[in-house]
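Box 3.1 A note on notation
Throughout this textbook, protein chains are presented in two layers. The first layer is the amino acid sequence; the second is a token string describing backbone geometry. Keep the layers aligned when reading.
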Amino acid sequence: MAKRKVSVDKRALNFLKTLTGIFGPSSFEGDVRSYFKKEVRGYSDKIWTCGLGSIIAQKKGTTNSPKIMIAGHMDEVGFMVRGITKNGYIKFNTIGGWWGHVVLGQKVLIRTRDGKEIVGVIGAKAPHVLSAEERKKVISPEKMFIDVGSYGDYNAPEKLGIRVGDPIVPLSDFHQLGDGKILLAKAWDNRIGVAVAIEVVKRLKGKRHPNTVFGVGTVQEEVGLRGAGTSAYEIAPDIGFAVDVTIAADTPGFEDSDFAEQCGKGPSISVMDGSLLPNTILRDFVIETAEKEKIPYQLGALARGGTDGGRIAMTRSGIPSLTLSVPSRYIHSHNSIIHYDDFENLVKLLVAVIKKLDRKTVDKIRNQA
């Protein structure tokens, strides 16, 4: 049997591997911001950071306006040291939403204030000592602890310089699965959105577009969509796109698997989520563009969960906004999965949309005419 040929751009693959591997929970996005700046340098006209920490890269087209914002949040879900027990175990708070089932027994990386990174494991009782009642329960993260190697009178956190307030992220490796297009890593939520924002800015270099584009890496999305609000206020865009992940319902156990998004079937165009009912003219414009350009897409409708799009939409007097997503399996865990083609097709879709967003088209969207 002939081996199936798979096309995955090596440059893009290395880019995604690097981006997902960076340490960056909410409020500790500095390394991601530095990488964002490095990648867009030479492709944008101006790069700056707003007061809360979001980074903005301006790419001017043939006119100063309309202004188009493309935002992906840089932060990942993680943890923070809240205390250290007298016998040297670390108690922690969650940063972002975690389910206890996916936390126990997992490896983590703790960063101290002097930049040292320390490996630990979230302790779990052996099944042999669990009572029948304990087996039925989901342990909440606030009752868990991290072991970094204490024993006897050796208090490892104290010796290693770990203090209250130090950030923690999942420790996970990047892998290509299956035919090579299925990508496993930590932090797809939402480094893939950051990757799209960067890649769109890059691919607009040398291309005519009747607007000015702002590629944005926002901060603190996982704890309240905070950076999207401050960066949108600063830019005052005419149109806003939030780029994020959405739930891939193509694994066992999903009631909506017959019609919800799947990995590899195209980027998702959101018709609603818990934070945003999008501008319908903008939504339909993006759908029509995808169909004309023959770019595969899916439609998403989440009842719960919000994105930066919800905060962008409510900035100043209101901004027509839409959330575009890459379907992902197992988000808010140590390891999640995306399909490379969904990333590539989302970049193509946004570039095609941007080329068509002139003043007349944007005024029609904004006026809902």
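The two ends are 56 Å apart (CA to CA). The mean pLDDT is 95.
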